[in-house]
Amino acid sequence: MKHAVLVLAGTLVMAAAVPAAAQEAYTMRAFYNPGPYTQINVERTVRNYEFCLESSNGGVLESALGHVIWLRLVRPDANLNALQEGIARLAAEGPTPSIRYRASLAAMVFDSPKIFAGLTNVCCASGNELFAKVSAKAQETLIGDNR
Question: Which of 47, 97, 121, 147 is most exposed, with minimal Cβ within 10 Å?
Answer without folding.
Answer: 147
